[in-house]
Amino acid sequence: MPTEVVTTPRAEQQIDQLRTAQMKQLAAFVKELESRGCAALGYRLTGDDPLAHLCVKHLGGSLRAVVAFERSDRAWLLLVGPHDDGDPGIDVYTELYRMVGFQPPDSVKRTKPPCCGDGGEAPKMGKVAEELADSATQLRRRRR
Question: pTM value?
Answer without folding.
Answer: 0.91
